[in-house]
Please model this.
Amino acid sequence: MCADSAQGARILVVTAIPEERAAFAPLRLPSDVVVAATGDGPVKAGRAAAALCARHRPSLLIGAGVAGGLTPDLSVGDLVVGHRVLDRDGEVTPWPDAVRVVRAAAKPGARQGTLVTVDRPVVSVSEKAAAARRAAPPPAAVDMESAAWARAAASHAVPYLIVRIVTDTSEEELPGYLSRCMDSEGGVRRSAVARSALSHPRSIPDLLRMRRRVADGARRIAAFVASLIAEGI
Model:
């Protein structure tokens, strides 16, 4: 597993944030599997994924990371295998590799669903409900990178599969200031989140809970992806 080799890769695994990528470090993956973090937000994710596809020429791209649940049928810890990927420009085509979607969704704890990519965190119950209506029928989850990864893979004629693990449900409110802590490229500025949390101390327990869920979710999604690779996905 290497994020720096210029040699061809059989599988390119992309995550958004360092915590997600780090979860792969203890796992024994084949030498022709590259794992890299693209950065969060659609701009950075798309740019980095395109560069990685051009550099490594993979035969498959797997996008992996955490997501928010948009529909009530998703609970924390549920795995969503995207059979549709949407963003504000519409549905990404070509679609995720159908055979691999079916195989991945057949594993325990996983199911097919729609992944909705947004430009900033969806924090309120009403915002989640609005995003869910775009993704009907359920289940659906929301993130900030899946469509960018998918479009980058499609632009390089690379088949792709995207799997996400739910870390907050459709009925959970996230701190409202998260959507205001963005950098110029649509990523979340952690320093701004920390400052905002100090100004809103009642939100700190929610942030700590989110942090624990992200860490646990990153470990689980890494193990899931590793099992797919081991089974020849």
About this structure: The CA atoms of residues 17 and 39 lie 6 Å apart. The domain at 11-230 is CATH 3.40.50.1580 (Rossmann fold). The mean pLDDT is 93.
